[in-house]
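FAQ

Q: What does a record look like?
A: Structure on top, sequence underneath. For example:
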């Protein structure tokens, strides 16, 4: 996978969660105001209630290059990002592992779900006060954004979740890496679903097995 394609995929679903400390991580975090905490609690309650959903997404990298695709999610832990042709990318979380397949480059990679931004809103119980630190709550004309980072402040980077107010809905997120380069994911037509096919959240390694693997 080329660096640019790899960054696009990782920013969506497999960027190490340990890289979500702010660039200004040496600064102490100010406590949230009562109003900010109320918005965070509102967002958490919404995400907790979003057990199954589907929609479309537009992903834009720091250079303005955009890709599109279809999204399916089922909490806890399951998600599918199917990129439109000619991308050839497919990202699937089965509840424990995030698998990334590139049919064009014939690559297949896997990452622990807990080490990706997806774990922030696919967890069985969503906690924004454990392992994650809220650095900013920003009010927008039609919603609000919650910016989070790694509470241990080990490395630079952050993720910002954006919500609409009326109706309350997750509209996307932006992952900023250690070099300050943002990748934005915008959700379109995200709607609650029911009875999503289990096969959507299964992705097996399509590469032929090495017949000599595992032998002494």
């Amino acid at each position: 996978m080329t660096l640019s394609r790899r960054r696009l995929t990782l920013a969506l679903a497999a960027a190490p969660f340990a890289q979500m400390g702010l660039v200004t991580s040496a600064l102490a975090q100010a406590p949230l105001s009562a109003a900010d905490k109320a918005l965070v609690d509102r967002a958490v309650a919404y995400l907790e209630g979003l057990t199954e959903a589907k929609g479309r997404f537009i992903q834009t990298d720091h250079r303005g290059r955009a890709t599109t695709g279809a999204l399916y999610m089922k909490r806890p832990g399951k998600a599918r990002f199917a990129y439109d042709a000619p991308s050839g990318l497919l990202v699937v979380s089965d509840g424990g592992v995030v698998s990334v397949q590139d049919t064009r480059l014939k690559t297949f990679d896997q990452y622990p779900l807990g080490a990706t931004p997806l774990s922030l809103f696919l967890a069985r119980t969503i906690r924004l006060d454990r392992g994650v630190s809220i650095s900013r709550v920003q009010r927008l004309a039609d919603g609000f954004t919650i910016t989070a980072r790694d509470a241990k402040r080990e490395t630079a980077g952050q993720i910002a979740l954006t919500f609409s107010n009326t109706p309350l809905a997750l509209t996307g997120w932006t992952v900023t890496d250690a070099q300050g380069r943002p990748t934005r994911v915008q959700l379109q037509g995200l709607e609650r679903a029911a009875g999503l096919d289990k096969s959507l959240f299964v992705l097996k390694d399509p590469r032929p097995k090495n017949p000599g693997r595992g032998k002494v």
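Q: Is there anything notable about this one?
A: Residues 41 and 54 are 23 Å apart (CA to CA).
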